[in-house]
Amino acid sequence: MSRPLYFIPDWDDLVDPRYDFLSDTPAGKGWEQERYAHELLDRPPYDGILVSKVVEEKSKQRRARMRSLGVHGALRVPDTFPVIGDCGAFGYIDEPVPPYTSPEILEYYTQCGFDYGVSIDHLIAKTDFPDRELRYEITRENAREFIALHKKQGLSWVPVGAVQGWDAESYAALAREMVAMGYEMLALGGLVRASTDLIVAVATEVRRVIPAETRLHLFGVTRAGLLEHLVRLGIYSVDSASSLRRAWMGSTDNYHMPEGDYCAIRIPVPGKRGPMKLLEGTALKRAQKLERASLEGMRAYDRGERDLDSLLKTLGAYEEIYNPGKPSRLKHYERTLRARPWQRCDCAICRDAGVEVAIFRGNNRNRRRGFHNTHVLYNRFLSL
């Protein structure tokens, strides 16, 4: 059996390719000047991209690009690069009904040139969700109308039936119905927070009741403990941005390598966030001095011109200012600095930015590290 395809959800994750790290100055801003991960790495770190309508609607510029350039043009990928469109049920989970209609979504997928389009579902976030039966019925009837209209209009893109449920049996029952409706590809939603055991149980039961040739997509799950099961379960594709987002949302696991995760070294800008926002006068000047010393120390350490102990002392002094009264990350910093992962990684991000990738500071470092993390995850998919 072949490995599953990995799709990355698009959230306009862009960086400035000519960003000046020494002066922390961008060369340009905006979609035209910035670049996606697939434009900076030697090869795209994913097999395709997932675009959710609720995300697209948050930006007028994004909507305009989608309509004028098509989804492939807006993402700057070839027409042969697969793009899945969905509604983004997480974005309207608190609404009594989805804010879209099937005719509206069919027109959107067609106009923008998606390769796959997912029917309108309504998320059942947990087993005891108060109106789970209603949401289940809404998901079923939307899927029925969606594929009927798709067939009637003779559309060329692949219709995907969104499956919701609260246990293995409910997912399987709806999946069986959707195959009978005519779907040849299904997507299982609502499993992001589910245990690995439940995800495996759901996928196993769904696979048991549908034809072997029916393709299965899993929304939002690429966790390490699940990867070994994907091939056995016959999963066609998955999507998740968790590796990318850990770069700035993780506490101590935001720089990923094949052998394990490392902690990026925080060197925040004084006066912007948290306790340092209140600094002024002498206290602010001291913070700025330690900020500069930390940045210069990281670069000197990278060049072999600074010893580890003295660098950790500087980083620790700065940490006391930006993270007062909270657990120290110095032990995690020491592990990262001893390993020097940025020097061992052969991806274009680490080659070009070097030690800057290991610094937790602003979009152009943090999101680059996220691109690197996605590259590491994709290599795991390639090895399945």
Condensed summary:
This protein has about 375 residues and is α/β, with parallel strands linked by helices. It has 15 helices and twelve strands. The protein is about 45% helix and about 10% strand.
Q: How would you describe this protein?
A:
The protein has 15 helices and twelve strands. It is an alpha/beta fold and 384 residues long. Strands 1-2-3-4-5-6-7-8 form an eight-stranded parallel β-barrel. Helix 10 (281-302) packs antiparallel against helix 11 (308-322).
Based on DSSP secondary structure assignment, what is the total number of beta strands? 12
Identify the strand order in the major beta sheet: 1-2-3-4-5-6-7-8
The residue fraction in helices comes out at 40-55%
The shape, in one word, is elongated
Number of helices: 15
Core attributes:
elongated, 11% strand, 12 strands
Architecture blueprint of SSEs:
Elements: E1 5-9, H1 37-40, E2 48-52, H2 53-56, H3 60-75, E3 83-86, H4 102-112, E4 116-118, H5 132-153, E5 158-163, H6 168-181, E6 185-188, H7 196-209, E7 215-218, H8 224-230, E8 237-239, H9 242-249, E9 255-257, E10 260-262, E11 265-266, H10 281-302, H11 308-322, H12 330-339, H13 341-344, H14 348-353, E12 359-360, H15 362-382
Parallel strand pairs: 1-2, 1-8, 2-3, 3-4, 4-5, 5-6, 6-7, 7-8, 11-12
Antiparallel strand pairs: 9-10
Helix pairs in contact: 5-6, 6-7, 9-15, 10-11, 11-12
